[in-house]
Design brief:
With 150 residues, the chain is α/β, with parallel strands linked by helices. 39% of the residues lie in helices and 17% in strands. It is built from five helices and five strands, in the order E-H-E-H-E-H-E-H-E-H. Helix 3 runs parallel beside helix 4. It is globular and about 35 Å long.
């Protein structure tokens, strides 16, 4: 799992810190970039950000995306990611407090790879984040690069 990148889009600082800690506790050896704003995360992922360190960086192997975000919500971010060729392939896991059927259905309709309701219990949250990362970064096979036929 080394040299892999996880993008975490979470506006709640405590939840973001907890997710990063969960990855560390589960010994997930991946770089984690945290964004607290849907628009900034989207700019980064589309490589149109103005920050020089955003240019030329590889696509993430996993995007953990919350629903309730400032400026662009998680559903809007997901929709825009999936409509662009360069961001169609990286796995996007919705990690959110919502268990509303309409949110779940819309996320899957737009191309989410998984939808997970955040466990409230600390130890369950740690375990869930570890399982998500182990599956998507360790077990799951992904396509690298862009493929026009997809």
């Amino acid at each position: 799992m080394q040299n892999k990148l996880i993008i975490l889009v979470e506006d709640n600082e405590d939840d973001a810190e907890l997710a990063v800690r969960a990855l560390q506790r589960n010994k997930i050896a991946a770089k984690v970039k945290v964004f607290s704003d849907g628009e900034v995360a989207l700019e980064y992922l589309l490589s149109v950000g103005q920050d020089a360190d955003m240019q030329g960086e590889a696509m993430p192997q996993l995007v953990l995306l919350d629903l309730k975000l400032p400026r662009l919500n998680g559903i809007e971010v997901l929709d825009r990611l999936r409509t662009r060729l360069q961001t169609r392939l990286p796995p996007v896991v919705m990690l959110t407090t919502s268990n509303a059927e309409i949110d779940i259905a819309e996320c899957y309709r737009l191309g989410a790879n998984s939808y997970i309701q955040k466990p409230v219990d600390f130890s369950q949250f740690i375990a869930a984040v570890g399982e998500i990362a182990n599956y998507w970064l360790g077990l799951n096979e992904t396509v690298t690069g862009q493929h026009d036929s997809l």
